[in-house]
Amino acid sequence: MSTATTTAPDLTGTPARRSRRSNLAPLAGRILVLLVALFLTLGPVVWTLWVAFTPTDEAGRRTLSFAAFSDAFAKVNMMRLFWNSILVTALCAVGQMLTAALAGYAFARLRFRGRNALFAVILATMMVPMQVTIVPVFMLIRGMGLSDTLLALILPAIPTAFGTFLMRQYFLGIPDSLAEAAQIDGATPWQVFWKVYLPLSTPGLAIVGILAFNAIWNEFFRPLIMTISSENFTLPLGLVSLQGQLGTGSMSTVLAGVVLSMIPALVVFVFGQRPLREGLTAGSVK
């Protein structure tokens, strides 16, 4: 008499199990890519903070202290550098927002001869690097008697081709019926711009202002050419002196100055990320 033996079914080869296993490889690859990106992004920042807060003592050992920051304030006039950078950056950002709004409105809503050709020329200037135009700009600034002044850093940075293009696109997305309704109520062209179009374009203005702040705050080349005296140096240019003669300065002191220069940019990012996000996503959902 034979007895039938039953064996449990092998579930390891089921389609669901095989599908789960096949999805692990792409998931592991994505996690690896994200970890590498995280290391490349935060690695330099973590290393900068570590070296700035752990300067080496006389015995060559690293100890946690604020000595590098005190040394940075002792070697350069940090408050003067901060004031120059804040003044130049704020005026340039406000100037770019104002000129971009006016120029963008003109190219979007006003009709005049040669409008498209002039706008194409403005866009073409975005392809010209600063190093090409710095010599004629310097000669013009010197002819105006503004060389080695903060105005030499402010005036050339106010016009913005990218800001003009961005604001033009925002104004083109605003319905014409709003301007027509305001004109029926007796609004002048300036009132239409100031009370109708400008309030609706605040996301675009936020993008222009934040991008201008980041660009001007970290700018090194133009202050290097336009300024000579140390009292007119901005923060990126003044931090170079922390390196000492032939780079013999303390690395912790240099990176302490870098950490201090990161604080305003971090504050602007914290308070400006919401309008920046709204500006970048404006128009994506109707």
UniProtKB/TrEMBL annotation:
Keyword terms of this UniProt record: Cell membrane, Membrane, Transmembrane, Transmembrane helix, Transport
Record bears the keyword Methyltransferase: no
GO biological process: transmembrane transport
Signal peptide stretch: none
Predominant localisation class: membrane
Annotated InterPro entries: MetI-like, MetI-like_sf
Residues of the ABC transmembrane type-1 domain: 82-272
Subcellular location: Cell membrane
Gene Ontology cellular-component annotations: plasma membrane
Superkingdom of origin organism: Bacteria
Membrane topology designation: Multi-pass membrane protein
Cross-referenced Pfam families: BPD_transp_1
Membrane-spanning segments: 27-53, 81-105, 117-138, 150-171, 192-217, 251-271
Stated family: Belongs to the binding-protein-dependent transport system permease family.
Protein name listed in UniProt: N-Acetyl-D-glucosamine ABC transport system, permease protein 2
Organism: Luteococcus japonicus LSP_Lj1
